[in-house]
Amino acid sequence: MKANVFHVLNAGKQLPEALAEQVEAVARAAFARQTTRLGLDGVDAVLYTSPWTIPETGMVGTAPDGYSVHLAVTPQSPQFLAHWRTELPATLAHELHHAKRWRHAGLGTLLEALVFEGLAQHYEVEERGEVPLYARPTVALDELWARAEQQLDGPYDHQAWFFGDASHELPRWGGYALGFELVRRFLERQGGDAVIHASISAEAFRSAWSAH
Question: What letters, b where the CB count within 10 A reaches 16 and e where it falls short, cover 59-96?
Fold first, then answer.
């Protein structure tokens, strides 16, 4: 087994020392708990400060591959200060699930992306205890799925589908909400959870929408 390592980048003290100690303690505990649950080894997680985060949470995560997770936080954000004890472990859970799935699957198609994000959100729910805000639909999902079906296997605009594009009438976080519901329907039929199904092909989820 390769060791998992959690790094905090704070040489400039943009994260005040007292707060940094609390954040690091919570993050390290969640990192250890979640890597164990996911059976992950050889993962580097990096936490750093940035002004470029989700306004509603004051943080954002990315998982560029199966071996690294990045967490950016905005310590001066009122939303971060109010909710970081919940949001930080939940965001870390989401990104670590991505790292797990990266080792088995990619993001070449819209179907793969919907499953990728849907599974991560369901795993995140285990940590936060409720559905994340980006999984909550703002449009009729059956209509959005009908549009998605036409692009499931071909080229697609990830930014538009997951972060919104007014010119294409795609809502903010539409892909997240759609992926969450697709995986929910799959799990309802198949049983299990986001950990058990972390490595299976996205193709297995294709019929879950219409079979509901």
Answer: bbbebeebbbbbbbbbbebebbeebbeebbbbbbbbbb
